C-alpha cells in the first residue's frame, strides 16, 4: 500500500498532529500492512504560492506552453504525479485560526490542476481523479468544535478540506480530530488524545481489512485466469 503522508504543523517534535499521524502508520504496520511511504513536510518543502505566471500556465493547453510555463508548473506537475500514484493519503495538520495552515493551502492550490487531478467531462462537468484513494485527515484543535459545543459553528477547516478534495474526487474522507487540546485543561487534553488514538485504531483496522480483501480478490482473479 503506497501512502502519501503529508505533515503540515509548524511544530516539530511537539506537534500532536505529527505524533498522531506516526501513530496511525504504526498501527497499520501492526496490522501487517506492507507500506510504502511517500513523505512530504509542507512546512519544509512548501509549494510555491499561486502567482500570475502559474495561473496563466495552468490554463494554457499543454501543447502550447512555453519552456518558461513548463518550468513554472514543474513542481506542481511532480506533486500531482505523486498524488495520482498513491493508494491512500494521510494528511495531518493543526487548526490555525479556525482553518488550515497556509502551507497546506499552498499544497491544495498546487495540486488542483486541470487535466491532471480533475478533467472535464463531455457535458462540461468536472471529474476528480482521486476517487480510488483512501483519505484520512488527522487534525489537532485547541478548542472543542464538536457538534453542540460553543465553537462548533466556527469550524472552517472540515468543510474546506471536504470541498477541496471532494472536487478532486474524494467522496468519503475519514476525519480524526483531536480536540480540545488547550494546555489550561490537561485532563480534557489527555482525554482528547486518547480518543483520537482510539479512532485511529479503528481506521487502521478498516484500512487493513480493505487491503486484505483487495489482495484476496486479486489472488482469486489470478487463479481464475490460470
TrEMBL record:
UniProt keyword annotations, A-Z: Flavoprotein, FMN, NAD, Oxidoreductase
Catalytic activity, as annotated: 2 a quinone + NADH + H(+) = 2 a 1,4-benzosemiquinone + NAD(+); N,N-dimethyl-1,4-phenylenediamine + anthranilate + 2 NAD(+) = 2-(4-dimethylaminophenyl)diazenylbenzoate + 2 NADH + 2 H(+)
A GO molecular-function annotation: oxidoreductase activity, acting on NAD(P)H as acceptor
Residues given in the record as FMN binding sites: 9, 15-17
Cofactor: how and how many bound: Binds 1 FMN per subunit.
Signal peptide range in chain numbering: none
Spans traversing the lipid bilayer: none
Cofactor: FMN
Top enzyme category: oxidoreductase
EC numbers: 1.6.5.-, 1.7.1.17
Domain Flavodoxin-like fold: start-end pairs: 1-201
Quaternary structure note: Homodimer.
HAMAP family named among the record's database cross-references: Azoreductase_type1
Protein family membership: Belongs to the azoreductase type 1 family.
Protein's UniProt name: FMN dependent NADH:quinone oxidoreductase
UniProt lineage: Bacteria, Pseudomonadati, Pseudomonadota, Betaproteobacteria, Burkholderiales
